[in-house]
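Field: COMPLEX_INPUT
Field: COMPONENT_COUNT = three
Field: RESIDUE_TOTAL = 915
Field: MODE = joint
Values follow.
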Amino acid sequence: MRRHISLYGLTFSLPLLIWQLLFFVFPLVFLVALSFWTVRNFRMEPGFDTVNWVTMYGRPVFWQAYGTTLALAAAAAALTSALAFPCAYAIAFKLSPAARRWAIFLMVIPFFTSYLVRVYSWQVFLSDAGIINVMLGWLGLGPFRLLNTVGATMVGYLTLSFPLVVLLQLFSLVFIDRTLIEAAHNMRCGRLRTVFAVVIPSARVGLVIAALFSFILCFGDFVSPIYLGGGDPTTLSILITDTTKSGQQWPRAAVIALTMIATLLVVAFLSVRFAYKGRAQ
Amino acid sequence: MNQENELNRNPLIDGALKLYVVLAYLFVFAPILASFVFSFNSDRFPSIPLGHFSTEWYRAVAADPLVWDGLRNTLLIGGVVGVVSTALGFGAAYTDYRYRFFGKQVYLALALLPPTIPVVIMGLAMLAYLSRIDLSGNALSVIIAHVVICAPFAMAVIRLRLSQMDPSLEPAAWNLGASEWATMRHVIIPFARPAILGALFITMAVSFDEFAIAWFVSGLNETLPVKVLGFLQGQVSPRINAIGTFVFVTSMTLVILAQLLLSGRGTATGKE
Amino acid sequence: MQEPLVSFEGVAKRFGSYTAVQKMDLQIHKGEFLAIMGSSGCGKTTTLRMLAGLEAPSEGIIRLAGRPINDLPSWSRDTPMVWQSLALFPFLNVIENVEFALKMRGIGRAERRRRAEQWLDRMQIAEFASRNIGQLSGGQRQRVALARSLVVEPDILLLDEPLSALDAALKVRMQSVLKNLQRETGITFVYVTHSQSEAFSMADRVVIMSRGKIEQIGTPQEIYRTPRTRFVADFLGSSNIFPGQLQQDRSGRAAIATASGHFLLAEDAAASAMPGQSASLTVLDTRMQIHLQPPADAVNMVEARMIGEEFVGATATIYFETGAGQEIRVQKSHEELADLPLAVGRSFHLSWLPADGHLVPE
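Field: COMPLEX_OUTPUT
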């Protein structure tokens, strides 16, 4: 059909383009500019000064937080993927279609409950006088310090990304050609070996993408590290909130934010390359 | 055939896997259920054993005029965000469905990427930028930020519906004498209607409990989730459970409405 | 001859570097049933879509009733189409579907309803007027699609493989419905199909296309009896094709030398035959005779070994192979074969009259 630009076509395509340019691209671009501004007497002044980059990159605290965040997010992505896989696998292969639809519907519900409320609820479970310690007390154990630990942060990260990872893994598993699995059994490949030799390679793209999303979510999250991890160790997201609150140091926060975006881009790029490695797209 | 055949099944392994699924769902729903249970619990510090049934936290919340302000703002903002992001998302979904053009990849990236940027960073960038153009600190700034995040969801939902449409449907309408605008009104929109309403409810729900951006962006006009954050930062109070339960019930109502619209009449008359 | 209803004048369509339709001239006359036939990718659907304004020609002019329509958008042409998928609106019921085109033309509700009901009646689906599309059978949907297109009483109706989704029996029923409808209304039908039986049983004229080019235009009879190109002969699949070289035999008659022997040509073919030229001889499979012993009077004859047989209804197709590896098919009724001791592997003599052979250029 006619491909020339028409008023009709622009009516539908332009609004979103303009909106996302104005309120998505421009803010991010502005963040770059902001990182070169200076702060004097608690007031930001436009300019071009690399002082924020030099200051932030020169601070051991920053690199410590960077390492911590990277390690925590990577651990969370690995842990979530490992814990989610048996669940997604069972839903994909062991449930009836009706049960599978219900399982998917239930997994969607958490997306529409406030993450913050769920994290608060975990405090109730994990605090010193909380549900878990009370129950352990009945057995004559504890109390243990559960809240304000890295373990608690991980529980928060799982709360954040587990449902999404299960769903993404599930969608790649249900599209596996079942005859591949039957062919593997037919060639004397046992149950567990089939999972590693056939199922996981077939679903690799989906599994890697799921892990990537888990990484992205946890890398940028500030709720779990603060409210479950007690703010210690400091992650980049905590550093950003602290930096913005203290003395209008927005340009420095921008440096952290940009470093985070760059890291995410690199990780995303590498993951996608790995996901599609050896595949004709 | 969706399930393995009988022969290759091992009831022990299957049972263990199913048990694991149940445990996984328990983990996912434990905080949601706990929040619900403790919202009706009398104790000041929620734990077990439970105190007695009480609606005092709901009454406490209902008696707080600030909460009502927040609720009004949240609903107002949710409504506007739902309508605007559904309209923008529909336009983008239709553009992707109908046109091929140079730079389409970039267009789609812009349309779909925002939710993958961490909220802390989006919040920071938004607040810095919007205050620069004198838009920060009011309901409008919250709406702007929420639409950026919500429009991609609307687009995805509507695009999925359009991909179920017989590609001949639109040209068939032209062929019968309907102009492009008339076709939009009499064919595309009626066909996509379930998804449009679904997208409307889903984006309203997302806006409803999106809090982080609101926290950064909003000043005077706080939305409900911002209030929740306030509770968290200050004194921990079971009020949050009452608010959380209320938010949950509202969001779920919207989501279930969307679900019914997307799976009900839609597929019955969708594809030929 | 009166002015054609539609004429394609030097029309071509390219998609990027791919040529879908090569420069083509075609006239469609008022009141005829024209079938455009070819395998997928031959440009038949693109031709139809250009006529409907769904593709813009890369060059050339398309006229409808003498008026150039190249720049007319789809919705301003009266060229309704019946789609392969039918493209019925799933969110409208039967009568609303039929009313759609009238509504777009701004016709009032009462008048719309009256005219739509008339057509539902005519297509014998009046009882389904308020049904949803999803509740109809394949044949009923077909009728709704026809009613929806015909309700505006156009001069021309375009049909893009409308029967391809139906089962064999229903297909035959719908063929007669379509043919009768075309006769009664006098509307010009342009029918695109890949099915020879559909095209030949309904059309007054058939256009055969291949790789974006028109190979032959003619009545079904003409095309079936005398395929004009090697492609058409191959495509119809009802002729045996002997590639070879033209020459004159000792008595000065035109002949063709093929791998399986020399064969005499019909008198009229001899006139245009240039000795030395490459060409193919085509002989319809129903025109070949099978003999156990070589008959004395046979002019064109070849010895071949039987390699298989196939029975469809009252006719049988016997497959042979000559010593040179040429496959030959012969179609006969069971009675005609009754006296022959057919057996795979046995040798027979196959003959035909020179007048039954036709030349096609290589």
